[in-house]
Specification:
Number of strands of chain B: 10
Largest sheet of chain B: 6 strands, mixed
Largest interface: A-B, 45 and 50 residues
CATH architecture of the largest domain in chain B: 3-Layer(aba) Sandwich
CATH superfamily of the largest domain in chain B: P-loop containing nucleotide triphosphate hydrolases
Number of helices of chain B: 10
Number of strands of chain A: 2
Structural class of chain A: mainly alpha
Distance between the termini of chain B: 40 Å
Order of helices and strands of chain A: HHHHHHHHEEHHHHHHH
Number of helices of chain A: 15
Helix content of chain B: 25-40%
Number of domains of chain B: 2
Structural class of chain B: alpha/beta
CATH topology of the largest domain in chain B: Rossmann fold
Oligomer: heterodimer
Largest sheet of chain A: 2 strands, antiparallel
Chain lengths: 358, 272
């Protein structure tokens, strides 16, 4: 009667029990099968294939030698937004305001830096440069968190649908950024911001990209191994189940939107470190691009399942296509079509697999 | 922890053994009104420790409202709640949970994407010690061990505790929800239509589970439409009719036609 239950992951069923209708379940999978049952691995293979294609097609394989720092920084910003969004989607919250958050955060970061360093002096020297950069970073992240807090309050405590709430705050955020900059951009930030932070490379990889990868690893660990991650996924999987287990779902949602906001704030700082100026008009599609990258990677829009690795490959896919098409001399507009096609295919495959199991 | 007999009304039709076990959960003269609807008028039920008590009733008789009241999900307009022998006021389901009352909801309230282990410990997670504790790292090894022990004790068979709950069969899901309730409940387990989504064989297993849980000294209260099956395992039956208790009786003396007749109100009408 009290048979010892198998506790090992995916341990195969004892054959005598297989006829028992109470033991029907998915058959155990091998490690290779498991590795490629996830969408992330397929997207990774597509990434690799694209890199090979572009390397072959580009003259003198210039695609590979061109580890374009600017492109990688663009990818870094996109990845930071994707990481925050992936966690939110896992908890069943969608966010369309991350691009706007990035813009506002870059503006406040830029203003903070300008205030501390004072205006550009003829000697090209700045006052308290180290502090300025640090406080600029702090201002950007704080703005991002505040933006997330507003989203969270609107979603959790006012009870507005996340889609509507973040569409609203996206408009408000972009508007505020443009009001502050009077429709233009904050420029003339210290060149050291670019040299020593944004464009600083270690082994040809820009510093911010390292930070983003590190954060991705941290996020992966949080989702996999911590109570915070587990409760986030529980919330996305079944909000009612999370509520009835005594989890404070509203507060948890607030924490998540603030965390995603912090990521957007950091992305905003990367943006000013990348250009030495804000780019208020360049981020209109960021939120949708992040959503695309995350979904391509296998995170469920409905919540309950997050793939951080998938979000990385999904982001890499967009960046690789964008840069690769330019290098081989095809108009970059085709990138939009290609990413769209991959999105539809990835989700279709996922749907099919999901439905078949259900 | 023993029942206060003075508070229980006369005419309580429990079989009174010599050493009467304590009341696990009880609702006395519960009334609840929603706008124009008098959902409950005089609903009574008493579950002693070690007993399985069934609530039957037609649709709209107030079964769900009664259950929600007993769980603290709704506050009654009138009446008295007793948990573990003491009169209590429940503000939320959390209050009930702290008194050891757990529920198996009709929709099971499981997170389908999460593993069996994670579902069983949701809201009661075990963390690793030391620095890990500060950042909330789960101790999945211990969680798995305890979940395994809890499932084994109830003879619930699962292929693996690491699979997401959505990959389990209906009966297995029910088993996980029941085991979770038993794991955290130490006074009473309330079940809302536990067999509604199950096949015949799986329903039998769940009914056996009710007996197993009761034998561990918990009170089991089950709301069900599956009269024949539940009547067989129940010690006592409470039948609701239009928001009030029409009958409280030992199950042994009742037949399915008796129950149905009372459920649809024939007895009340005859008496009138």
């Amino acid at each position: 009667m009290s048979r010892i239950l198998p506790r090992v992951r995916n341990e195969p069923l004892p054959s005598a029990e297989q006829a028992d209708p109470d033991l029907r379940t998915v058959p155990a999978k091998g490690i290779i099968q498991r590795l490629f049952s996830g969408t992330a691995s397929w997207v990774f293979l597509i990434d690799i294939a694209l890199i090979i294609v572009f390397a072959t097609l580009s003259s003198q394989h210039s695609f590979l030698s061109l580890t374009n720092v600017q492109a990688l920084l663009g990818g870094t910003e996109a990845l930071l937004l994707s990481l925050g969004l992936a966690l939110l989607l896992g908890a069943g919250i969608i966010d369309f305001s991350l691009g706007a958050n990035l813009v506002v955060s870059s503006v406040t970061g830029g203003i903070a830096i300008q205030h501390i360093t004072g205006s550009f002096s003829a000697q090209g020297s700045y006052h308290a440069l180290g502090w300025a950069v640090f406080l600029g970073l702090a201002a950007s992240i704080a703005t991002g968190v505040l933006f997330g807090l507003v989203n969270g309050l609107a979603i959790s405590y006012v009870g507005i649908n996340p889609l509507i709430a973040t569409l609203g705050t996206a408009g408000i955020g972009t508007g505020i950024a443009l009001v502050i900059t009077n429709g233009g951009d904050i420029s003339g930030l210290p060149a050291q911001l670019q040299q020593d932070v944004g464009l600083k490379t270690v082994a040809d990889i820009p510093l911010p990209a390292f930070v983003a990868i590190l954060l991705a690893v941290v996020m992966f660990l949080i989702i996999r191994f911590t109570r915070f991650g587990m409760r986030s996924l529980a919330m996305g999987s079944s909000r009612a189940a999370a509520e009835r287990s005594g989890i404070n779902v509203r507060l948890h949602a607030l924490r998540l939107t603030m965390l995603a906001g912090a990521f957007a704030g950091l992305a905003g700082f990367v943006d000013i470190a990348r250009f030495g100026a804000t780019t208020t008009s360049g981020h209109a599609n960021d939120a949708l691009n992040a959503l695309t990258a995350v979904i391509i990677g296998g995170t469920l829009l409905e919540g309950g399942r997050v793939s951080i690795i998938g979000a990385i490959w999904g982001t890499a896919l967009a960046v690789t296509l964008q840069e690769g098409l330019v290098v081989i001399g095809v108009q970059a507009f085709y990138q939009l079509i290609a990413v769209g096609v991959v999105l539809i295919v990835a989700v279709s495959v996922d749907r099919f697999r999901y439905r078949r199991r259900a | 922890m023993w029942p206060d007999h003075s508070s229980s009304p006369a005419g309580d039709s429990d079989p009174a053994p010599l050493s009467r076990p304590s009341i696990a959960i009880s609702g006395r003269h519960i009334a609840k009104r929603f706008g124009h609807v008098q959902a409950l008028s005089d609903a009574n039920v008493t579950v002693h420790a070690g007993e399985v008590v069934a609530i039957f009733g037609d649709n709209g008789a107030g079964k769900t409202t009664f259950l929600k009241t007993l769980l603290g999900m709704q506050r009654p307009d009138a009446g008295e709640l007793i948990v573990a022998g003491k009169p209590v006021h429940l503000e939320s389901i959390r209050d009930a949970q702290q008194l050891g009352v757990e529920a198996v909801h009709q929709d099971l309230a499981l997170a389908p994407e999460l593993s069996v282990v994670d579902n069983m410990f949701l809201g009661h997670e075990i963390l690793r010690q030391g620095a890990y504790r500060v950042i909330g790292v789960l101790n999945r090894a211990e969680m798995t061990e305890r979940a395994d022990a809890a499932l084994r004790e109830l003879s619930i068979k699962l292929p693996s505790l690491a699979v997401p709950v959505r990959d389990l069969s209906g009966g297995q899901k029910q088993g996980v929800a029941v085991a979770r309730a038993v794991m955290w409940g130490h006074t009473a387990i309330l079940m809302d239509e536990p067999t509604a989504a199950l096949g015949a064989r799986q329903s039998e297993i769940v009914c056996e589970l009710m007996r197993t849980i009761a034998s561990r000294g918990l009170g089991v209260l089950v709301v069900s439409h599956d009269i024949p099956r539940v009547l067989k395992v129940a010690d006592k039956v409470t039948i609701l009719w239009r928001g009030g208790t029409a009958l409280e009786a030992p199950a042994s003396g009742l037949t399915v036609p008796d129950v149905v007749a009372t459920m649809v109100g024939y007895r009340k009408e005859e008496a009138a």
